[in-house]
Amino acid sequence: MDFSDTQAEAAFRKEVRAWIDDHAPRHLAESLAGSGFGSTQTGEFDPLEEAKKWQKIKADNGWACLQWPREYGGRGATPIESVIWNQEEGVYSKLSGTFIIGQGMCAPTMMAYASEEHKRRYLPKLASGEDVWCQLFSEPQGGSDLAGLRTKAEKEGDQWRINGQKIWTSGAQYSDYGILITRSDPDVAKHRGLTMFFLDMRSPGIDIRPIKQANGDSGFNEVYFDNVLIPDHQRLGPVGDGWKVALTTLMNERLAIGGGIATGFPEIKELVDNLTIASGPAIDDPGVRSKLADWYAKSAGLKNTGARAISALSKGEVPGPENSIGKLVAGTMMQDIAKYALDLQGLAGLVTDPEIALSQARIQAMLMRSPAVRIEGGTDQILRNIISERVLGLPEDMRADKGLPFNKIPSGNSQGS
Amino acid sequence: MDFDFSNEDRMIQEQVRRYLQDQCQLNRHRSVLDGNETQALDVWQGLAAMGVQGTAISEDYGGVGAGYLPLCLAAQEIGAVLAPIPFSSSIYLAAEAISLFGSTAQKERFLTKLASGEIIATLALVEDHLEPSPNQLQTKFKNGVLSGSKMIVPHGMIANIAIVVASGDSGPQLVIADLTEVQRTPVQSVDPTLAAASLHFNGNSVEALGVAGNGWGQLQQLLHRAAVLFAFEQLGGAEQALNMAVAYAKERFAFGRPIGSFQALKHMMADMYVALKLAESNAYYAAWALENNAPDLNLAAATARVSATQAFQLCARDNIQIHGGMGFTWEFDCHLYYRRSNYLTLALGGLTVWENKLIEALPQAVA
Fold first, then answer.
1. Which of A301, A308, A392 minimises the CB distance to B4?
2. Which of A210, B89, B121, B279 is the most exposed place for a label (fewest CB within 10 A)?
3. What is the distance between the alpha carbons of residues B280 and B5, in angstroms, rounded to a whole number?
4. Domain A7-127 indexed as CATH 1.10.3720.10
5. How far does B253 lie from chain A, in Å, by closest CA?
6. How many CB atoms lie within 10 A of CB A172?
């Protein structure tokens, strides 16, 4: 066991640090550091443009998607080298948010299922940020029960005709490509009739509408498909095998999201270090200390669990469902922290005007964004199902749709088929 | 960077596990619980013969000199079977105190015998219901003799020597007391397998350990180091309690299905797993910090301690809940883990104390 760098690792870190020192967009450092959870602040500069610029410089110098093979735009680096990069990139890593879904989830799925020709054609531009990708999974009738999705794919010669609707698609409005899961056969059991594709997001028949979220932002979209055509060679995996392909994507989602996940701890620490409450400095209050210690222990636990996952990865082990704990712990923690931070301030905690609010109103932003953390990419409840069934080996819940053909499954009266 | 134990460390763990599975099933714990024996002394001797007590003790004093990493893993195995032996008191506390602060002569005299299992030792700190503090110690050390009482001393009924925290001429002072002539009375406790005693010193001759007046600082250093090892015992217990809950939930049927298929119970067990996993990862980091005397050892130790306490408390408590009524019988083993989880929580001061230690250590590491 060794939590410090080996000689080779230290040398690599030095190289990374020197390159970042020379090339990082310093003019954005201050705005980025002040970014609240779920938003990337770039001051007077356009966030998407700046993100693409930084990604391109990295790619041109071999610092993008470090663990990918070189022929697909990566560096062929080890997992530990990739961790070192992430540690050193620091505040500039906030610019990578735009690419997380494409690079973290779509790319591993493409690597596993796309043809060699497609991989060489699409992956390098995904690595360099020239192309942004999105993931078209969730539907109004298929969220936690993802396999209940209804978007129809019908084979016509050597192409597929797509009709239906996706929802909660992050970044669809600026994406160039997407991976799409569809129902290709409604007459078989629901997990068996699915097929996965990738497609050009500018294909005719696609209509993208932003969703106004509960926190007032619009990071997610509804995506409508009206007779959209996809060539068969853009199918990922065999017809009817889409569920298996989707599991590859979702496994990587938990690793991508669970890695350096935001917990709200630095925000609450900063607040209580500077706040005075009725009993004196907040940091001296026994109640505050107890909660702060609990949250520190949890955030350290996540960090150290992440470190262990990297070690396992280095030894060739496959990331397993145990990585589901990251988002499960962080989501609730962030919400609890935001609520407690507001509670310490009384009515003043309600203020969202960044000129008046403490910490530039970042905690209020956390309060309003955190409910989504507990839902997106697997709700807390779904994650607990995964842990209990796939890690602890507990039996599945009884299911009313087990073994039924998809088109015989009761759908209630909300938006039945 | 490598955030896992080495194969060598794991081999030592495996040897300890196999020995304990063979010789120290829960029926040994029950035998002590029911008063048939004070401790499983043959297990204590058996581990000593394997060199487990001496794992982190220097070879100069009869130990193995293998460091703290394998000792942490041995602690996890001892915690898993709730071994009714005076291991934590003798090794994590007393041997550690003598290794840290003892003279060469003291190390030669005591560490060799601790490593060989010849003597049993403990730490005598608590005097009353208040959180121990340096200014309120009533046990006095003067002119080489000790007077005063310690209210609850784990393994005090069977220990040959105790490290006693006393008040000396120039402040708190650690001393080594031979307990042969000391009056002891048994103390009933939530965990009856501790051979706990009240110790009454009445002018008994003792010897100073470490620097006069520095006793409190030394005690804190000792507690932080021991916290890492206690955390591993807690992990072992927590994992076993979770395993019991999962096994029972798979085989027990109600409403025509295994109770483990109900989300109300599955989600409880998922939360137990999450607490365990966080605790395990924090304990791993703390083990490394302990072995390497890392600058952030105090923070790492307090963090591991807080997480491990939370995990064992949760797992032991909810293991009973998942067993339902059967979990509240004497016959089922759930209460053994529940009892032990409370001892291990309080052994070095409770959760609040360690939350405070964590916050005290925090500014040094997180800017």
1. A308
2. A210
3. 12
4. no
5. 12
6. 22
pLDDT number for residue A416 = 43
pLDDT at A321 over 90: no
Residue-level pLDDT at A375: 94
CB contact B355 to A (< 8 Å): yes
Q: Which domains does chain B have, with CATH numbers?
A: 7-115 (1.10.540.10), 121-212 (2.40.110.10), 216-365 (1.20.140.10)
How big is chain B, counted in residues? 367
CATH 3.40.50.150 holds for A133-245: no
Q: What is the ipTM of this complex?
A: 0.96
Touching check for B281 and chain A: CB below 8 Å? yes
Residues of A in contact with B269 (CB under 8 A): 388, 392, 394
Predicted confidence (pLDDT) per residue in A358-413, tens digit? 988 999 999 999 999 999 989 999 999 999 999 999 999 888 898 899 999 988 76
Interval A118-176: pLDDT, tens: 999 999 999 999 999 999 999 998 899 999 999 999 999 999 999 999 999 999 999 99
A395 to B258: CB separation less than 8 angstroms, yes or no: yes
Q: What is the CA radius of gyration of chain A?
A: 22
Name the residue among B286, B300, B302, B311 with its Cα closest to residue B355.
B302
Cα angle A118, A122, A125; round to 5:
160
Which residues, numbered 250 to 269 in chain A, qualify as contacts with chain B under a Cβ-Cβ cut-off of 8 Å?
269
Note whether A177 and A200 are within 8 A (CB): yes
A305 closest CB neighbour out of B269, B281, B366: B281
Contacts of A297 in chain B (CB under 8 A): 278, 282, 303, 306-307, 310, 358
Tens of pLDDT, residues A45-86:
999 999 999 999 999 999 999 999 999 999 999 888 988 898
Q: Chain A contact for B3, CB < 8 A?
A: yes
Q: Does B366 touch chain A (CB under 8 A)?
A: yes
Rounded Cα gap, residues B154 and B124, in angstroms: 8
CB-based contact, A10 to chain B, within 8 Å: no
Q: How confident is the model at residue B365 (pLDDT cuts 50, 70, 90)?
A: very low
Mean pLDDT of all residues in B267-282:
98
Superfamily of structural domain A259-378: Butyryl-CoA Dehydrogenase, subunit A, domain 3 (1.20.140.10)
Q: How many CA atoms lie within 13 A of A114 on its CB side?
A: 20
Mutate to test the interface with A, among B8, B274, B322, B356 (most CBs of A within 10 A): B274
* Extended strands (E) in B217-341: 253-254, 257-258
B-facing residues of A in 371-400 (CB < 8 A) are 381, 383-385, 387-389, 391-398
